[in-house]
Design the sequence.
């Protein structure tokens, strides 16, 4: 067997410059410390926005379901007056729940995207970059948040057109954006965690279908917690969607809320979700 | 400078097992700085697992894998900064333009904003994709996608370019095109190239040295000419006529790996992935 030959002389940077590719011999200066995470999050969010710019079909098709919920379910139940809504029309009460639902539906299928990225080799390529796994997951979680936020804007516009009395206070709207992003970050991480366990798209589709409806109906999105049976109230207490809806309702409609608790629960849930999904990402790389 | 740092890659008795299946079984391998090294072998030989260990995708114990002297186990982030990686699958994002695909990798390798556009432009120039840079990658031909992936790998100025079956499924003209770009960039930048391939003609033509893997180990190592001549000598010693045609690298491959069907030759996922890639480029 032959020995490895002596290394040939490295081509000079001059030659690369002559060929118009001088920068391709100069490695970029690495970011360090806390600056890595926001840089990776921005990179992932930018990709999501670029994709939406090229193809808005998903944005339009995903607007249909929330529009139907508000238009049919909301308006019908407003007439029936069967659900106690703290004195506001039912369609108003429902709108924040539908914003949260739309955001969750987008985020909950991020696990399928990450399995698709694994099958396409994109995930492995990203894992061979100087990106810690937690930063990659956080980037994807916030990218889901950005996508959900755009969806939330669409639902808010539909709700406004239906006459829902929403706040236009910029600070409160900023709070709404934060709540939508945090909620989506948690649900996308939940999905990516399940992806790291089940490892196949088909199985994840089944899980996705199985958990979205219980999460939705086991929250205060459609009706107040007080009308639920005891066991469902217990489910609602540990369901982050309930805290998301509570915060959205308080910010958008001015109903009594528990904003500090809501934000705390969403922050902790997102952090735990990121930790869980990051720890299982290695299974997807194998 | 240590000898380790003179070597682009050094694997020392590398072992990696998936459950009870040992994919890499005591691999000793060195790749010198600046060379094009071809890792050959049948499906299931352990090439891709070895590549995944070198790229830090799979966790390995300390001191088994070093890249330019950096330990892949202890200093994974530093190792990743030295690498450009093109996986076997067509891994460009079809819903982004060529330029956006490359810009993503510029961002995750910390290319500063003021330099990003120019560096991305140079990477696209290096693979001759400037004119198609603002088209969606989904509209590219198979050869163009491979060149785009090369641009993604080059944008961070890697010292080691790792290519896993870069020409699988491409027609001969596209294959030649991909290799011409690899060689041109290598000549201009002096980077080291580690490539796996099933195409013996490519290995013969483009690799400075090749290692033939079988059952998780290197079974033959040398320049393509050395390996061909070695087999020729063995055949003559066994009674072959001096006038017999010189063996090809494919003959060397068959000599090492055998020509029978091997039930361990690549799992279902490997074969499906290979076929998908071939379908997408074809």
Sequence:
């Amino acid at each position: 067997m032959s020995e490895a030959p002596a290394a040939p002389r490295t081509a000079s940077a001059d030659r690369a410059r002559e060929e118009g590719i001088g920068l391709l011999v100069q490695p970029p200066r690495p970011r360090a410390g806390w600056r890595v995470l926001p840089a990776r999050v921005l990179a992932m969010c930018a990709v999501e926005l670029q994709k939406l710019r090229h193809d808005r079909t998903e944005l339009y098709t995903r607007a249909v379901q929330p529009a139907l919920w508000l238009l049919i379910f909301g308006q019908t139940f407003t007439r029936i007056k069967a659900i106690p809504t703290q004195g506001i029309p039912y369609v108003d009460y429902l709108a924040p729940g539908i914003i949260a639902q739309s955001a969750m539906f987008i985020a909950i299928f991020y696990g399928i995207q990450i399995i698709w990225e694994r099958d396409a080799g994109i995930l492995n390529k990203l894992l061979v970059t100087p990106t810690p796994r937690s930063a990659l997951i956080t980037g994807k979680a916030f990218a889901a948040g950005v996508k959900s936020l755009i969806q939330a804007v669409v639902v808010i516009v539909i709700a406004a057109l239906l006459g829902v009395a929403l706040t236009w206070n910029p600070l409160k709207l900023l709070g709404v954006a934060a709540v939508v992003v945090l909620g989506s970050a948690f649900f996308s991480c939940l999905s990516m965690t399940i992806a790291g366990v089940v490892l196949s798209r088909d199985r994840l589709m089944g899980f996705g279908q199985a958990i979205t409806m219980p999460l939705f109906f086991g929250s205060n999105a459609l009706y107040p917690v007080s009308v639920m049976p005891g066991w469902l109230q217990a489910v609602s207490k540990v369901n982050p969607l309930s805290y998301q809806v509570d915060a959205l309702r308080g910010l958008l409609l001015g109903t009594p809320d528990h904003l500090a608790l809501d934000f705390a629960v969403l922050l902790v849930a997102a952090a735990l979700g990121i930790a869980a999904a990051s720890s299982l990402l290695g299974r997807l790389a194998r | 400078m240590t000898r380790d740092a003179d070597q682009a890659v050094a694997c020392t008795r590398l072992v990696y097992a998936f459950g009870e299946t040992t994919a890499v079984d005591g691999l000793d391998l060195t790749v010198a700085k600046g060379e094009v090294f071809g890792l050959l072998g049948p499906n299931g030989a352990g090439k891709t697992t070895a590549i995944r260990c070198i790229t830090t995708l799979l966790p390995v114990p300390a001191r088994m894998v070093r890249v330019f002297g950096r330990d892949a186990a202890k200093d994974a982030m530093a190792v990743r900064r030295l690498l450009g990686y093109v996986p076997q699958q067509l891994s460009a994002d079809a819903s982004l333009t060529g330029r956006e695909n490359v810009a993503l990798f510029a961002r995750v390798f910390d290319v500063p904003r003021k330099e990003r556009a120019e560096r991305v432009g140079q990477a696209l120039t290096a693979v001759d994709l400037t004119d198609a840079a603002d088209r969606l990658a989904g509209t590219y031909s198979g050869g163009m996608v491979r060149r785009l992936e090369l641009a993604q790998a080059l944008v961070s100025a890697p010292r080691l370019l790792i290519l896993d079956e870069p020409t699988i499924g491409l027609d001969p003209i596209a294959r030649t095109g991909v290799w011409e770009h690899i060689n041109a960039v290598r000549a201009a930048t002096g980077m080291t190239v580690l490539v796996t391939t099933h195409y013996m003609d490519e290995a013969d033509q483009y690799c400075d040295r090749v290692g033939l893997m079988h059952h998780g180990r290197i079974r033959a190592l040398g320049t393509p000419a050395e390996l061909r001549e070695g087999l020729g000598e063995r055949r003559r010693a066994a009674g072959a006529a001096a006038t017999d045609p010189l063996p090809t690298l494919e003959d060397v491959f068959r000599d090492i790996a055998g020509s029978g069907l091997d039930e361990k030759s690549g799992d279902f996922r490997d074969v499906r992935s290979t076929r998908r890639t071939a379908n997408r480029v074809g």
About this structure: Chain B has a mean pLDDT of 89. The beta strands of chain B are 7-18, 21-32, 36-40, 65-67, 70-71, 83-86, 160-164, 192-196, 209-214, 217-222. The domain at 3-82+158-277 of chain B is CATH 3.40.50.300 (Rossmann fold).
